[in-house]
Amino acid sequence: MFKKVLWHIIFIYGFTQFCMPVSAQYKYRRFTTSEGLSHDITYQMLQDSLGRLWIGTDDGLDCFDGNKFIQITSYDGLYSNYVIGLCNIPGFKMGIATWGGGSQVLDLDELKVERCADQYLVKLKNIFYAQNLLISAPDYVLHKTDIQKSTCEPEHYTIVKAAGGRLQLKSFDNSGKLGHVEDYYRFSGAVMGDVFYVFNDPKKTVLKTTPLPGIYRLPRGKNLDLEQNPEFDFAKEQYVSLVTSYQDKVYVAVSDTLYLLKNKKIIEQKKLPLQGNAITKLAFITENRYVIITIDANGNKYGYFYDDGNLIDLKQYCNIRNSLSDILIDNDQNIWISSYGDGLFQLMLKKELISYMGTEQFLDPNIYGMTKSKSGSMILLARDYVYEYRGGQVLPQAIDNTCRELKSDNYGNYLFCFDAPQKSSENKYIFKPYENSLLENIGEVNNFHQFITLNKDTNKIYLQNGIQIKSLAKINADLFWIADLFAIYKISVSKKAVVETVPFDKVMCSNKITKLLNHENKLYIATDRCLMMYENGKWERIAFERPDEIISVNDMVIPENGDVWVASQQGLYRLNDSGVFKLGKSSGLLNDYVKSVCLDDNGKLWAATNNGVNIVDIQNLKTSTFPQFHIKQKDCSFNIFAISLEKPSSVVTQYQLDNGPTWENVVNGKVEFCNLKYGKHSVKFQTRLTDNNWLSSEVFPFEIKAPWYQTTSGFVIILLVSTAFIGFLSLYVVKKLKQRNKYLGNLIVEKEKLQLELNNSRNTIAKDFHDDLGNKMARISIMSELLIEEENMLEPRVKRNLEQIKMDADVLYKNTRDFIWSLSTESNELYEIDLYLCDFAESFFENMKIRFDVKRNYDQQIKIPYHWSRQIVLIFKEIMTNAAKHAQATDVVFEIKQERETLIISFRDNGKGLPEEALKSNNGIANVSARAIKINGKTSFSNLEQGGFEFCLTLFMPKSTIPMV
After folding, report:
1. Angle (nearest 5°) at CA 364 between 358 and 370
2. What residues contact residue 168 under an 8 Å CB cut-off, 6+ apart?
3. pTM, two decimal places
4. Which of 27, 33, 61, 266 is 20 to 30 Å apart from 155, CA to CA?
């Protein structure tokens, strides 16, 4: 029992040891609806010339550019969303076979599906392009559509004769009368060159059709009913499941046996271990590496990767549960697998050349120093540990002081630490003060005392300006470079002196040196801002990404092939004659911040990060293929297709405008330059994967044309048109001005005539009023006064009535006189109003023993609207009367002044003023304000600080207007 269990354990261990390298050899990714795929049931695939992957699904046609899926469905013109077959058509188009929608054509540039009114909505399973025809051969009917014709109506054929090794087609009767099913041959097809071949379809079908033996060419032109002799004599009686070609060979599959033919002769025959299933597709990477699709008796499909004699079951390898539907090899040599329900799979065939050791191997994975010991083991330094990697094991040793550097030479392994040396018998390291450093197998640098001590020698070499302890570069056994803050120095061991001093050049981006490295008379100077090179008296700044970049270089190493590997805060770079190659986190590094690099005995590069160590097989590391790079220009707009289905996130695309000094990144694959200044321009594009060299495009010229009206000819046209327009407009304006002036002249004459008539009427009315009403009122007043003077003749009551009549007659006479005066034309003049009020005031205040004064500051030619004079007179008579009766004033001032188009008429006295409550509630004030409003005026009443009262009337003179024509 124990032996049985033991054998089981041995078997399982051996099996896992055998399978682990295989399972770890390739990586794969799965895409489902969760990643944006339209449906998990997928069919045939195709890659277009731009690098995009097209996938037929149960819910439309999908396009994948490495980052995202886009869908084309019935909303975009498909007759059916069940997209089964795809094929390329010249002219950047694609043929589509749908289940229930027939065949259609997709414009790959515009992503537009062509539609036809006479489309034959048939169920298709596959589609091919040959002889300017779209051909589909599902089961027993061949469908042919001539894409050069405007009509989409296909022709349909069946095989009616296959006996005696000859084949004949005839038009298929699609009336629904099928006849004897056994009389129809089931067949499939394939295209080689521009020839379509017909052979057996190994798929299981519900119809009892007859299998087709042999391989036949489809006749060209319209004579498809001609009899055809079979191709390849060896297969004329065989049920062939595949016909394809690769390079100069033809591959024919009969069930699971593969025949290789050259010049129609069999040169090799392989029976593959495929459980007797029929081979239906081969997709080649190389002649000895290809993928295979097989089909069993129930119609289930399987996939295999034939890798130079090894056969890998892709369904098992990628854990696919359902039947496969198609396999494709993309331009990056990745295998794509579609399935009936498990989605889409991408198997990446390139072996991983970057491994890592992280938290599983290191107690503290933050590694900032490395060296290779004399015994060949790798020694790594962390904050609290020193690790030795030997024989596949990591051996840690704790350290209780902080060390900044780890170095090794023939004499031992050195730790340069800040604290005192560690006392331990188990210690395998030589501890040195932190201000020192080691020049391997030559000597030691004491930075604190600014001198160099050579091995086995007490003599010291001093530098006056200090020493940067990381600036040590060995040239040979006798010479080495070292630097201070101002220059680099070449020192001879034999002479024990400086033999050459090179001051830093102006191009130096920084004098803080992190590493010196000499190789073939080239000195590489790493700084905290850039990488410099000194050779034969010349300085050069080395650019990784851009000429003006700032990049901190932490370490460098040069393997035997002469490549320079640079550890920086932006990644790991390789410099050689072919350009700059970069590895970063997107390429498989643990971190973009690489602190230290070191080569082991196997030539592999160790790169230290704060997450552990990457081990790069630089001897087998090859740059990836460039992304698919295509540019489509439309005037000043550009669509850039830089696609990698293997490493989509690693694609970087840039453009350089007008041969400028900088490159700008392209965002979302599109740039527009339509807002540039007018004139001719040019743009150049470049792309790469982040772990690859740049691939440049051609220079694309374009022109930003000014609008026609900003060109010379446009300006001349505009000038001529404008001149003509201005001329015609001037003539029109002159004509209208003449008409208007004539009208205005007539209007002025008419106005003057009307004004004269109005003035005459006013004067006549005033005279008549004065003569009739004024005289009668004066007569009443005089007669009343005469009667009153007869004292003895009148009774007292009658006398009182006569006195009242006389008083009323006097008041009415005076008011009538004011009214009559306002009717006359002289009341339109401000000067006449001034005189009229002054006459009244002088006689009125003289009787009151009040001194009256007048101030004037206005143009005496001012005329005012005829209806203003009466209101002005009534307002100021009211104000003057109130002042005489109630103010108890001794002096009053009447003033008229003009300010532009405003008249200000005021009256002030030196009396006792007006109480505040009177200002708010006096009826006389209200009446005055109401009269002012009638003539567009404003009033103000105020008590003066020095005593007295002031009333001010502000009038806004109206502008005279003349009606326009």
Report:
1. 75
2. 159, 160, 161, 225, 226, 227, 228
3. 0.64
4. 61
